[in-house]
Amino acid sequence: MIVSNINNMNTATERLQEFFDNLLAFCDQTTKSQEDQILLAGSMMAVAKILYHNNLSEIEFQKIMDHNGRDLLNLIKPTIH
Q1: Cα–Cα dist 47/42, whole Å
Q2: Band of the pLDDT at 81, cuts 50, 70, 90?
Q3: In terms of C-beta distances under 8 Å and separation of at least 24 residues, what long-range contacts does 49-53 make, across chains too?
Q4: Measured between alpha carbons, how far is 38 from 53 in angstroms, rounded to an integer?
Q5: What DSSP string runs through 8-52?
Q6: How many whole angstroms separate alpha carbon 32 and alpha carbon 22?
């Protein structure tokens, strides 16, 4: 597992940066192709959804899903022709 000194971090921003860095390192170490990276991204989104659902109220969960859905659409919209 790629978890380092996350428990010693002070702020949420620092912990978030550590998680992000670890996930990118995991991606670099485990994916062998663009398809692997796309599949990993999809599984990360699914895990995020499960974690949000398990740890937030239904209203908080829905707000995050709505916001993330808009972000995803804005990200891919320029690529849709």
Answers
A1: 9
A2: low
A3: none
A4: 23
A5: G--SHHHHHHHHHHHHHHHHHHH--SHHHHHHHHHHHHHHHHHHH
A6: 17
Confidence band of 5 (pLDDT split at 50, 70, 90): low
Beta carbons of 53 and 61 less than 8 angstroms apart: yes
Q: Domain locations in the chain?
A: 1-30, 34-81
Top mean pLDDT of 6-15, 23-32, 58-67 is at: 23-32
Sign of the dihedral through C-alpha 13, 53, 72, 1: positive
Mean pLDDT of 53-65: 92
